[in-house]
Amino acid sequence: MNIALMREVSSKIIDCEITNITRVPIEPFIAKEEHREYSKTLTELGYKVHMIEADDNLPDSVFIEDTAIVLDEVAIITHPGAASRRAETKAVAEALSMYRNLEYIGPTGTLEGGDVMKAGKTLYVGKSCRSSAVGIGLLREIVKPYGYEVISVPVNGCLHLKSAVTQVAENTLLMNPAWVDPDDFSGFKVLTVHPSESYGANALLLDGGILYSIAFPKTRRKLIDEGFNVISIDISELSKAEGDITCCSIILNF
User: 158, 160, 194, 248: which is the annotated catalytic residue?
Assistant: First the structure.
């Protein structure tokens, strides 16, 4: 059975990091309800959810994706670009050690999992405000023995690479071309978000369909018209903390 690693919402999510959006009030109770529905949806799709307890000292810790990159062969624990988030990795490393051997990004470079998109044996890594050239180089060294290629991709206008592009099928990407250059992803069919839905490129490809936010109905219609099974959920409160669909889980395939 495939596993979805998740972490409960911190009651201090109101103190989260905000970089590219305007800070607005967040209601923790609603965020927790959305998170429960997210977990329930994954369970209904056949995933075993491994839930890590909340830590109220770590406001952003629900966005677990940023703390690790999980491949079939190894899990790489990151060194987040936001200093306030670095303590998040300890509990995630402990949980992942049950399923994978661990490697670590050293403290000389920064890297967040939201900047890493795996497509086959290629890792596209966003060079963003959170992931540095040194961090990307350290990742390249770790994964090279396993046969992975790492391609650094400039990101502009958003927090992470996966805010701008995600994989929705083996050869298809969903993209906001204002934030990344489609030419950096040769060989893929590219579906672009509706111009009015700039944050609509974040989707989570799962067995059984694509998990997607209800906030982007025009892009959702485009995906459905292309024949995708789109499973819509509400993460509007979590999104106020600059989180996306992929941020809230780490998927482990077996």
Answer: 160
